[in-house]
Amino acid sequence: MPANKPVSEPVSKMPSRTPRVPPRVNAVLRGLQILELLATENHPWSTSDIARKLKMPKSTTSYLLRTLLGRGYVRRDAAGDYRLTMKLVELSGQALRSLGVREAAQPVLRRLVAESETTAHLAVLDGAEAVYIERVPSPGFIQVNTWVGRRMPMHSTSVGKALAAYLSEEALDSILAGRELERFTSKTIFSPAKLKLELKKIRETGISVDDEENTPGILCVAAPIFSGGSSAGAGGGADRADREGAGRGEVVAAVSLTGPAQLTKGDRLTFVIDRVKGAARQISQSLGGRGKGI
Questions:
Q1: Among 68, 207, 219, which residue's Cα sits nearest to residue 144?
Q2: pLDDT (0 to 100) of residue 214
Q3: Model confidence pLDDT, tens digit, residues 189-238
Q4: Domains (ranges, CATH) in the chain?
Q5: Burial group, residue 222, by CB count within 10 angstroms (0-12, 13-18, 19+)
Q6: How far is CA 67 from CA 28, 42, 74, in A?
């Protein structure tokens, strides 16, 4: 009898399936997508726009935004649109220490203080406020009442104005809409129209000065810090190019020196301005920004 031949049985092919993501994990992923979108697109977002951009159901998007709002990760403006807050930075000192701009700025700030004998700050913008993320105090007995994490008004401080100067017109208008600019001293700029003129001047000179606008007797000088992010040139004319740093990169922070107003006049003020601009240029270049023209 002929030998039995092995019979090959057809192998059934199971359709490949993507592992199902548990609902809770999926919600976390979608929440992170929202945070990443708000972080990378520097303008207010409505619930509908976020849902459309991320291809999420509007009801889900609304629920996640309410959760993020309740936890302080996003804020809602008068128009009902959303932006990030500084909560991610404020979570812990460890997270703050990991910021590249802070690490790059620390040795420069120390040198600034040694050269000027005044207090140096590093700040970022959060809505209508500048937030100090680093501070190196003056070695002298004259100290200013600031600390890491302190929030300062955008319109009356040198760091706030240096950061606001490079916002898009839409972003700036969104911040100013329905907001009264508080007058802290007789020198405070409290008119939105005058503030915009001041910001234009800052873009032209690369330097921002708070001459007793926030605190009587205190003068501050600040300059913007550029990273190697998006650059200008994508249309919008000269004003847009000025706002976006004229090819230098994206403004991510501002560096400043703060001291007594009566001791920061004439040649001394010129010296401080030169040192602050040089510090901003050095930090910008270390972050991949060109820094040229600061």
A1: 219
A2: 95
A3: 999 999 999 999 999 999 999 999 999 999 999 999 998 754 433 334 44
A4: 23-85 (1.10.10.10), 89-286 (3.30.450.40)
A5: buried
A6: 11, 21, 9
